[in-house]
Amino acid sequence: AAAQAAGGGAAAQVDGEWIQANRATTEQWPSYGLDYAETRFSRLGQIDAGNVQRLGLAWTYDLQSTRGVEATPLVVDGVMYVTASWSVVHAIDARTGRKLWVFDPEVDRSKGYKGCCDAVNRGVAIWKGKVFVGAFDGRLIALDAATGKKVWEKDTIADHRFSYTITGAPRVFKGKVIIGNGGAEFGARGYITAYDAETGEQKWRWFTVPGDPSKPYENEAMAAAAKTWDPSNKYWESGGGGTAWDTLTFDPELNLMYVGVGNGSPWSQRKRSPKGGDNLYLASIVALDPDTGTYKWHYQETPGDNWDYTSTQPMILADLKIAGKPRKVILHAPKNGFFFVIDRTNGQFISAQNFVPVNWAKGYDKNGRPIETAMARPKDKPFDAIPGPFGAHNWHSMSFNPQTGLVYLPAQHIPLNLMDNKTWTFNGNKPGEPMSGVGWNTAMFANVEPPKSKPFGRLIAWDPVRQKEVWRQEHVSPWNGGTLTTAGNLVFQGTADGRFIAYDARTGKQLWQSPTGTGVIAAPSTYMVDGKQYVSIAAGWGGVYGLSQRATERVGPGTVYTFVLDGDAKMPEAAAQQAQKLVQGVKYDPADIPAGTALYVSNCVFCHGVPGVDRGGNIPNLGYMDPAYIEHLQNFVFKGPAMSRGMPDFTGKLTPADVDKIKAFIQGTADAIRPK
Ligand code: PQQ
What we know:
The chain is mainly β. About 10% of the residues lie in helices and about 30% in strands. Bound molecules: pyrroloquinoline quinone.
């Protein structure tokens, strides 16, 4: 109770000045990316490259979460605020790992399909005694930091006909809570909204793409953007896309906030805007006035997006000397595989260099336009896009250490080839269209032939001034965690294969590691309590890749691991993963396999993966189930028990005969791949 009172008390002091003042010491971790610039650079040096071998477990905390955990733990005066899947908020005593309070917004679990990418949440914001969380179902909720009791709640969804969600962490700039939404894979029009932190009153909303041109444009920025869209396919009916589902940064001196805007809805530009065009402000960084939400400038990283190349990846604001001149820049590594340095005063392009192999563009010209390759927009062929739609870098935070001058970037490739679906119509829900049965609208087929590119995951140390890799560490798989860098010359990162690792920030040498029971995707934080430096990581495998894939044989519930020098707490036990024994003996009619394949693609594949081929992630692969489950598949598909864990109810969407066809596909695939 004492810690609770103290925590509530200290959180009461958190405001803009406090967040800025904390930059000098970084003893607290009060905001998603540590500070407004989101550097994730901690000045703490008690743990350093010389003593990190002594790092040991201080405590663990069970988040009681079986889906992806993506939150960075915030810590103010010894109280940790962290979220688990389904937007559940936990307040924890950072000295002991004891629970202070839990707030469950009680998101309807059977609506998990309304998000593309797992029922995840990237964390909370703190401001003047309140904790803010965006619930998966689109509610923005203010809690009393001391008690976890709800103070206000707002529905952020502009139009409930579309599948809007929230997965990102809110930010608070100048007393306004700012939040964007997810939904562009389904057909949605992106926007961000600012609410008064005290009252929840809506202050402004800024759409990222134009709406129906027969209605007045909301502002000049929308009128200007509309000129870059072809209206012949009525792009507004499927929203146009541009959801701002993750990154937001703020420069108090310039009084500008920056928004990373997402991909087009649908992905295929031929369907979205048949005559082409840049389709502003998709895949752009946009600067807004935080007081009014007025557009100031933009820089578009992927004009005419056609590959799900979001620019929602975490930004960092840094002050660098470039060509002898001090520059205020934004560092950005969006999905499209190029590392950007942009002038944050005016949006001017400074440089871009690919940080992984790419095949959609050769590079950028001096005006900051990509030089696309001839193969990037094929009409009739599948395109093995490198990077693929999972991105060369996704939402996994990068960090910037001003002492080494390096950015620590979780980079990857996940192969997926794309092909235009010529017969796509909005909400057409045709068998064979990826996930269209649950509302997806990409207008692209995926993997009609197996991609030839190979997956990888790596940690890259990138010099943003020279635009050059300085060192790298190869991981066993893509989809590794975000990074933290410290004045102790360290970089921390969790990995898909269930480890938490410290590297020498200058050389990349691995100095220390600890198992984490399950794969890690979130980013760590570090902070001081009672004179001791702690490092915490919220482990919990999932996110979009982690639904159907994994890189570990062990699995545990979402867990916060907290480390301290000479810590000696006991590791929790992890359970064995789903066994990889192919399902056998389910009766089916082989003639049903083609139709079953198409139904599986449009309803099941993104979560369950390809039976017996993918390994299963935080959702089981159906190719390895006990045959009894597949025999009785209809019991799961129609109002089944997994609804309480996020499975949709397919009543009215699929028929019992459809389910028989899906069973034929599952057992047929297992039989086809079983070694003879
Ligand atoms: N979310 C993840 C994740 O949490 O693992 C990965 C992705 C999202 C993507 O790769 C996306 O493209 C994506 N797109 C949207 C969108 O278009 O609105 C939303 C989200 C999200 O909210 O999580 C993701």
